[in-house]
Amino acid sequence: MVASAGLPNDAGSGPNAHASDTRHPASSAKHSRSRTTIPTQSGKWILGKTIGAGSMGKVKLARKEDGTEQAACKIIPRGSTDEGHQSRADKERADHSKEIRTAREAAIGTLLNHPHICGLRDVVRTNYHWYMLFEFVNGGQMLDYIISHGKLKEKQARKFSRQIASALDYCHRNSIVHRDLKIENILISKTGDIKIIDFGLSNLFSPRSHLKTFCGSLYFAAPELLQARAYTGPEVDVWSFGIVLYVLVCGKVPFDDQSMPALHAKIKKGAVDYPSWLSSGITP
């Protein structure tokens, strides 16, 4: 559910505001007693420490005012943060594109309901920010786990692969393509199950049409994306899924090179070196 809040002037303190928001959050942070509170239909949420950040915005830990629940609040500014080298027309185009992408993420997030996809609890839009409240996954990132423990045992990797496959199948059966599946976008819950996050580049697809936007991380990107070929959608997720599985059992990406052109060439060629210690059930 998306709640839209109209904020009077810059302060965002009027009676119709759905989030106590300012145009210049850095200055408001100087007041020790100030805090960002987000009222929703499920209750008030209070924002706490930053637990993540990216090019689109940041993620803060949120808790219900009554202390009964925690959530991860993704905060996305509704405007360009880099105005120095952009013309007004370029800035307006960038802001419009960002707004469409964020609105799409919110809309798709409200449609998703799967045990291995991080659930979207609520969405609040103010004049200057989007606030997306996701379920809080308290087990950490898959990337951190692999960095700490190295490659996974094949039995454990099979469990995770089944869960990822189930989530992707659910998305694709509902005409949704993720387009940014990578090891960084997989979390592990305290119960040892995975949760896929970040549908910021997701889109709807149809077998009767094609998508043309290059999306995702280079190391996990499908060859057709590097070749600027139109694609239906699911095939780029399946390729990324294969890269993720390789990382799980090998502890590294299958395609790597310090030279960008060489890396592109390796991905387009698609020749994978499978370590000899992998079981025959994993290698093709």
TrEMBL record:
Matches recorded under SUPFAM superfamilies: Protein kinase-like (PK-like) (SSF56112)
Basic and acidic residues bias spans: 80-97
Binding site for ATP: K74
Annotated region (Disordered), positions in chain: 1-41, 62-97
Keywords: ATP-binding, Kinase, Nucleotide-binding, Serine/threonine-protein kinase, Transferase
Keyword set includes Iron-sulfur: no
Pfam families associated with the record: Pkinase
Gene Ontology CC annotations of this record: cytoplasm
Family: Belongs to the protein kinase superfamily. CAMK Ser/Thr protein kinase family. NIM1 subfamily.
Record protein name field: Protein kinase domain-containing protein
UniProt source species: Pseudallescheria apiosperma (Scedosporium apiospermum)
